[in-house]
Description:
By secondary structure, the chain is of the alpha/beta class. The protein has four helices and ten strands; from the N terminus they run αβββαββαββαβββ. It starts with 9 loop residues before the first helix and ends in a 9-residue tail after the last strand.
Amino acid sequence: xxxxxxxxxxxxxxxxxxxxxxxxxxxxxxxxxxxxxxxxxxxxxxxxxxxxxxxxxxxxxxxxxxxxxxxxxxxxxxxxxxxxxxxxxxxxxxxxxxxxxxxxxxxxxxxxxxxxxxxxxxxxxxxxxxxxxxxxxxxxxxxxxxxxxxxxxxxxxxxxxxxxxxxxxxxxxxxxxxxxxxxx
Length: 184
């Protein structure tokens, strides 16, 4: 087993490139098998802070719907976490408030309609375009990756300026209803 959590996730690893700075905030306690993202980035010299209610792998148990007040980080990641948070506005506010000018946000979220069994909220690609426009960010990468039924919206955003947080229209985050899409 590899200690590299990206060993079989090349598209995800691409989003991280190039790595920025020496500090990282990770939503969730991401791992791939026994390899944790926290151990991987800490071994590369990052001050790595992860937030997940379950406290696994050294994550801080904080409510993502409330202000995190953890300061700013060079890299901020959301790899399959925001879709599990009931109130979307505060979690996206927290992500952006953890960024300073020059910071990078790496995010992968389920493509609306594909992950009918997983998570409650699925942002559309247009959500990320408007998130960038309204919040002093630029899109470095934005694409749909993987194959049905597990396509992901993959995005890398860079903070260009600090502006007051503005949430895109709620209709751009599709509420998932697994009972309506149940498959045999």
